[in-house]
Amino acid sequence: MNSSLQIPLDLPNVRLLSSSYDAQGNFILEVESSLSFTKCRCCGHKITEFHGYDRPIRLRHLPILGRDVWIEIRPKRYRCRHCEGDPTTTQTLEWYDPRSPHTRAFEDWLLKMLGNSTVMDVSRRCGVSYGEVEGVLKRRVSTQVDWSGFKQLRTLGIDEIALKKGHKHYAAIISSLDDHDRPQVLAVLPDRLKETVAAFLRSIPEHLQTTVCWACCDMNEGFANAVQETLPKVAIVVDRFHVAQYYNREVDNFRKQTLQELKQTLSADTYATCKGTLWLFRHHYWSLTAEQRGQLEEFLLLAPELKDAWLLRHELNLLFEQEQTKAQAQQQLQDWKAKVKASGLACFDKFLNLLETWQDGITNYFEDRNTSGFVEGMNNKLKVIKRRCYGLLDVKRFFQHIQGDLAFSRKQPA
Ligand SMILES: [Zn+2]
């Protein structure tokens, strides 16, 4: 039986000269270029006068059957007769970067591994140093958006993210969909100030600025003002999850307060069962089982005001789930506000204030519910990347990490 196997090297324009193992059992593949010319580094002419070989270089390549693979090549040099002093130029081949100790294929592999992982992890699993993985990121992933990937922008997502745990250092993140409807990060800005965001929006090429229809953000006046100043025709869409977060927090606080009051009047046993209803209380009613609904209702019977608050919150949740026009949603919100006022509850006061300012943006969600969806997905992705990279990040590197992640961990279309 034949126990050897031919594997294509997948390196264009080379001939394999020899293959051997080193003392550690790694493959050493000696290759030479099959091209007999290069471009002069001074004048750019194609030059063919062979001058000699450089010293051999070793480049890490994709592992084969669990062994590390090193490609050894002696770069060729060519002389130019067009230029004064007849300078020589070293030939380079497309499958490696002269500044890198790896082949491009190996770097692609590292970047792919970096999707959903950390630099530390990749360094350990792939047997390369931390600095080398960082070097690949620096060389291969841009720190700025390449506008040529966009014919239109349509929706911008603007969000903020705390760069370091416990520090009040926030970066603003601007995202959009590219021409293939894939989420892309356009910028990670060093702070979340209005001026910083406005400066970035102004830096968007003019032909793309005119294609923006929506800016999706949370209820942050700085972001909204930056958009209104620089792109006055663009409508603000308030991210519905930020809205829900806001009113949920208020109702949760009201629940806490109610429980403290119940503690005075209820028996220890009954109080204990009430305390256990937090999850049921927060969850969407429509996703609870019959038994869970029963438990929740029993609890709410003990606290009629909390029940009213819960019902009003439930109505808001339903409002956002419904397919409806902006005008219909506006009307529903008006009705809802009237009900809150009639109920005499104070727990929605802050939220009612917020609606005064943001109702238009909040209901714009109904005009464009499909395209604002990517902003939610992007925000979740960013949180995961951030968690993996805590403490290591400046904004440029964060941008590179996101770019690398989006580009290399993307599922191939089926
Ligand atoms: Zn020349």
TrEMBL record:
Record domain Transposase IS204/IS1001/IS1096/IS1165 helix-turn-helix: where: 92-141
Segments forming domain Transposase IS204/IS1001/IS1096/IS1165 zinc-finger: 38-83
Residue span, Transposase IS204/IS1001/IS1096/IS1165 DDE domain: 156-401
InterPro entries: Transpos_ISL3, Transposase_DDE, Transposase_HTH, Transposase_Znf
A family per Pfam: Zn_ribbon_ISL3
Full protein name: ISL3 family transposase
Annotated source species: Thiothrix litoralis
